[in-house]
Amino acid sequence: MDFLTNTLKYFMNSEPVNRKEQLIFYDFETTGLNPFTSKIIEYAFMKSEDDFISSLVDPETKFEFKITQITGIYPDDIQDKPTILEKMEEILRYILEDNTDTYLVAHNNDGFDKWFLKCILNEYTDIEFSRFKYIDTLILAKMLIPTLRSFSMKTLCQHFDIELSAHRAYNDTDALRQIYDRLLELLSERMFVSSEELKKNPSIVYDYIYG
Predict the structure, then answer these.
(1) Per the confidence metrics, is the pTM higher than 0.85?
(2) Would residue 122 be called left, alpha or beta, if left means φ above 0 and alpha means ψ between -120 and 50 degrees?
(3) Nearest alpha-carbon partner for 29 in 116, 144, 120
(4) What does the pLDDT look like over 90-115, one tens digit per residue?
(5) ∠200-180-136 over CA atoms, to 5°?
(6) What angle do CA 51, 55, 56 make, to 5 degrees?
(7) Given phi > 0 = left and psi -120 to 50 = alpha, else beta, which region is 168?
(8) d(CA 107, CA 191)
(9) Which of 3, 107, 135, 172 is 20 to 30 A from 48 via CA?
(10) 3-class secondary structure for the chain?
(11) To the nearest whole number, what is the mean pLDDT of the chain?
């Protein structure tokens, strides 16, 4: 894991001069809801429709059939797949960039995905959880469309006429990317800033939600 330690030292010691911002959408499928006891069985990270990484992961533990019912992932599908430890280098190479602030976007990020990320960062690397900033589209949707009957991914996809297929990491992440774009269109009307400008500068969106 030399890459992990060397990357950490390089990024954490870099001076924040002319820092860029990058936006990455992500999603985890897991064996349960508790990040301290449940394990990741699939992940996806996406910068654009054509720029993403995704993989099934061997959780090295059994999981209940209800997870298969939700995700369509069977134990046999992942028994010969790499572990999350074996995939950490790929993940970090994708989300870490020199002199760049990374904003990680997920739906229910503050209640789910970022805690699973925190657990694997803590367990397998020395990279601080605070190295990244986190944007939750669930919160953003509640702020921008408060009268919506539900703020689930399914409801938001229906609201924005976005196709949502199987409940898998790549599919959810691609739908998330489209939901985020539509939410930025609504936010741009409130802030009098173009949605493209908001997408290029996720710090504006972050400050709108958490500032």
Answers:
(1) yes
(2) alpha
(3) 116
(4) 999 999 999 999 999 999 999 999 99
(5) 100
(6) 160
(7) beta
(8) 22
(9) 3
(10) CHHHHHHHHHHHCCCCCCCEEEEEEEEEEECCCCCCCCCEEEEEEEEECCEEEEEECCCCCCCCHHHHHHHCCCHHHHCCCCCHHHHHHHHHHHHCCCCEEEEEEECCHHHHHHHHHHHHHHHHCCCCHHHCEEEEHHHHHHHHCCCCCCCCHHHHHHHHCCCCCCCCHHHHHHHHHHHHHHHHHHHHHHHCCCHHHHHHCHHHHHHHHHC
(11) 92
Starting at the edge strand found earlier in the chain, the sheet holding 40-48 runs 51-56, 40-48, 20-30, 100-106, 133-136
Query: Can you say whether the dihedral through the CA atoms of 9, 12, 15, 19 is positive or negative?
Result: positive
Quick one: which of 71, 66, 21 has its CA closest to 47?
A: 21
Separation CA 177–CA 187 (nearest Å): 15
